[in-house]
Write a structure and sequence with these properties.
This protein has 261 residues and is of the alpha/beta class. It has a domain of 165 residues: P-loop containing nucleotide triphosphate hydrolases (Rossmann fold). It is built from 9 helices and 10 strands. A 6-stranded mixed beta sheet has the order 6-7-8-3-9-10, with helices on both faces. A 4-stranded antiparallel beta sheet has the order 2-1-4-5, covered by helices on one side. The protein is globular and about 55 Å long.
């Protein structure tokens, strides 16, 4: 299977603190890599490096074998989109949903002005929202609905890699499941490659093909999902798993895996 993303010897420093220490990572096309680790391990920093929001001090990234430079082109920015834990981070509260989607569609030249309305409605339908949502503002929606709108915005530019940084951790359990099902369906239908960050091992089991474990800015293990949950290689991975007495059952559909109890 071809590689979609390669992270080669990436290091990020903040003064005397090393946030990422010589990270090497590969993500194959049309798969989901689950990224886990305790708070402060460097997960979100790595996500922001891949998304182009942080320029590393050293190292190189390649997407579909093309180097990603410090200052990325419009096409490179379009190919990698990020869904944040808090959807408000990507939704301008002063803009209607119509404006939010139109801005992305027009800036990246996905469609012409005459087609923006049709495409925006299609995007909302993909995330199970009605077209009348276009004329509303982010504060008029629930947290789960706002996250769906954030997903629609990320998909609007037709990315090849989708980064999901704790996208369900701020949502109620029932809403979490629906958002995970949605992401699974979209991944399957659109042939997306995903980097999924979560502290919840039940979620990671449900969504991932491989699991990468970070600790104190270092990558300590990358394993196929089944091997990670049955025979983890790193002592720290075993510590993470031992902290979860029983893997929670998360019944999902739409291309997500179903974890065992």
């Amino acid at each position: 299977m071809d590689l979609s993303l390669q992270v080669n010897n990436v290091t990020v420093r903040y003064g005397g603190f090393t946030a990422l220490d010589n990270i090497r990572l590969e993500v194959q096309q049309h798969t989901t890599l689950g990224l886990v680790g305790e708070s402060g391990s460097g997960k979100s920093t790595l996500a922001r490096v891949i998304a182009g929001l942080i320029i590393p001090d050293q190292g190189q990234l390649l997407l579909d074998a093309e180097p990603l430079t410090g200052k990325r082109t419009r096409e490179q920015r379009k190919k990698i989109q990020m869904i944040f834990q808090n959807p408000d981070a990507s939704l301008n509260p002063k803009h209607s949903i119509r404006q939010i989607l139109a801005e992305a569609l027009l800036f990246h030249k996905i469609v012409g002005r005459a087609e923006v309305e049709k495409r925006s409605r299609q995007l909302l339908e993909r995330v199970s929202l009605e077209g009348k949502a276009l004329d509303k503002y982010p504060h008029e929606f629930s947290g789960g609905q706002r996250q769906r709108i954030a997903i629609a915005r990320a998909l609007s530019v037709e990315p090849s890699l989708l980064i999901a940084d704790e996208p369900t951790s701020a949502l109620d359990v029932s809403v979490q499941l629906s958002v995970l099902e949605l992401l699974g369906t979209l991944k399957s239908e659109l042939n997306l490659t995903m980097l999924f960050i979560s502290h919840d091992l039940g979620v990671i089991h449900a969504v991932s093909d491989k699991v990468a474990v970070m600790r104190q800015g270092k990558l300590v293990e990358v394993s196929p999902k089944d091997r990670f949950f049955s025979r983890p290689e790193a002592a720290y991975s075993r510590e993470l798993l031992s902290a979860v007495p029983q893997m929670p059952t998360m019944k999902t559909s739409g291309g997500l895996h179903e974890p065992r109890t």
